[in-house]
Design a protein that fits this description.
Layout: H1 7-11, H2 19-33, H3 38-42, H4 48-68, H5 71-80
Helix pairs in contact: 2-4
């Protein structure tokens, strides 16, 4: 469900979000989508497909945070996408 590649949309923050807002959004999502929590979330053993999906989502969340939490990278992202 996170096929959206816009980093702001992935983290659920606005384009003028502060660094603190970005960090808080990331932490919330990282906990919710962490692959290690999948079994607990599902209440059963996850399938390989579910594991892979969770890892992909977590990777997207982490990438978005890595760019948006770095002022230089964020500036380039805002400028060039």
């Amino acid at each position: 469900f996170m096929s959206e590649t816009n980093y702001y949309q992935i983290l659920g923050v606005s384009k003028n979000a502060s660094k603190a807002e970005i960090k808080a959004a990331y932490q919330k999502l990282a906990i919710k989508h962490h692959p290690d929590r999948l079994r607990q979330k599902l209440g059963r053993e996850p399938t390989e497909k579910e594991k892979k999906q969770a890892e992909e989502e977590f990777k997207k969340i982490s990438q978005a945070y890595e760019v948006l939490s770095n002022p230089e990278k964020r500036q380039n992202y805002d400028r060039y996408g």
